[in-house]
Specification:
single chain, about 270 residues, alpha/beta, 2-enoyl-CoA Hydratase, Chain A, domain 1, four-stranded mixed beta sheet
Length: about 270
């Protein structure tokens, strides 16, 4: 299946549409895909493009090459982009916007992790709905080795997934964890042999793409509001749930079930 390339302002990020999959690719393999400011800025643009295309049913993030998903923030930029409190706040605003756009995307988002997934790379993976990694992948947050403070939103995102104790261990030790350890913490949904990662993710996406898009949108919004606790807008989520019953997809799902055939959902 041929991929359609989406034009972007930077070559350090790639966006490709291949069938039902929108691929967001971190394209700086010479620096193990360390994420720079222009890469953060491109991420919301890519999500907007994929979300607006009804043919795209699932979004997958991956790193170029075989060494890393994202090895962290590009430290070489710190002297300029994060040299002062004001510059650092600007950097944080841009990276937080990208993270928020990923997390709030209405379509399923998968992190396909091969190799290093460190610091900012792990923060990006945490914004995804599902994380699938190769057995040789490594994970960690080296903030304590860099003297960086880590804001509450980022800490909460990790803690919501792995719990308080593992969150402290990850930060306190600043060490690299294996894929098996990360899965044991609940950080990863699946760990597969490196040679099988691409095929596994593609098959996974095919399964998701066969399902009703509006059902997944409603479920994703509901989960997102529930994790907010008392501040969650469950009424907004409930509107999306109820809207599913007024769609042609709901009719198609019922008919396909009765006719014992595979449903064909249109997202409407």
């Amino acid at each position: 299946m041929n991929a359609v390339t989406v034009p972007l302002q930077t070559g350090k990020m790639l966006a490709e549409i291949e069938g039902p999959i929108g691929w967001m690719i971190f394209n700086k393999p010479e620096r193990h895909n360390a994420v720079s400011l222009d890469m953060w800025e491109a991420m919301p643009e890519i999500v907007d493009r994929f979300e607006s295309d009804p043919a795209v049913r699932v979004i997958v993030l991956k790193g170029a090459g075989t060494k890393a998903f994202v090895s962290g923030a590009d430290i070489s930029q710190f002297e300029d982009a994060r040299a002062s409190r004001e510059a650092n706040e600007q950097y944080d605003r841009i990276s937080e916007r990208a993270s928020r756009r990923l997390a709030e995307c209405s379509k399923p988002v998968i992190a396909m992790i091969r190799g290093w997934c460190i610091g900012g790379g792990l923060a990006i993976a945490l914004c995804c709905d599902i994380r699938i990694a190769s057995e040789a992948s490594k994970f960690g947050i080296p903030a304590a080795r860099l003297g960086l403070g880590y804001g509450a939103p980022g800490v909460k995102k990790l803690m919501d997934i792995v719990g308080p104790s593992f969150t402290k261990e990850i930060f306190f030790t600043a060490r690299h964890f294996t894929a098996a350890e990360a899965q044991g913490m609940g950080l990863l949904n699946r760990v597969v042999p490196d040679a099988e990662l691409d095929a596994y993710v593609r098959n996974y996406c095919a399964t998701i793409a066969d399902n009703a898009p509006l059902t997944m949108r409603a479920l994703k919004r509901t989960v997102g509001e529930l994790v907010k606790g008392p501040e969650g807008d469950l009424a907004a989520a409930d509107k999306l749930v109820k809207a599913c019953f007024d769609t042609q997809d709901f009719i198609e799902g019922r008919r396909a079930f009765m006719e014992k055939r595979r449903p064909v959902f249109r997202g409407a």
